[in-house]
Specification:
Number of strands: 4
CATH topology: Alpha-Beta Plaits
Number of helices: 3
Distance between the termini: 7 Å
Strand order of the largest sheet: 2-3-1-4
Strand content: 25-35%
Number of domains: 1
Order of helices and strands: EHEEHHE
Largest sheet: 4 strands, antiparallel
Helix content: 40-55%
CATH architecture: 2-Layer Sandwich
């Protein structure tokens, strides 16, 4: 069953975040993930959530998504993202 990593990112350091963008994609692909949405226009239709830079990743399983997030390959990119943004991140299993 597919799983989705969903991020709402408020970029605080655009130069450093650009470094993250350059290296993160290869780590996603190495865990059989793919981008479904990556920073396109997002609009709130209901609720209190204020989307900033919205990203949706798809992985073949929940475990594969969690393995990517905790991986050694993603350690450096994750640190870049965390130092260049404020991020809300969840993982959810598909149906």
């Amino acid at each position: 069953m597919a799983a989705y990593v969903i991020l709402n990112i408020e970029v605080t350091n655009p130069e450093r975040f650009a470094e993250y963008v350059k290296v993160a994609g290869a780590t996603v692909a190495s865990y059989d993930g793919k981008y479904l949405a990556r920073g396109g226009r997002a609009e709130k239709l209901e609720g209190s959530w204020e989307p900033k830079r919205f990203v949706v990743l798809e992985f073949p399983t929940l475990q594969r998504a969690k393995d990517w997030w905790a991986s050694e390959e993603y350690r450096r990119p994750k640190a870049l993202r965390q130092s260049a943004s404020a991020t809300d991140l969840i993982v959810v299993e598909g149906v």
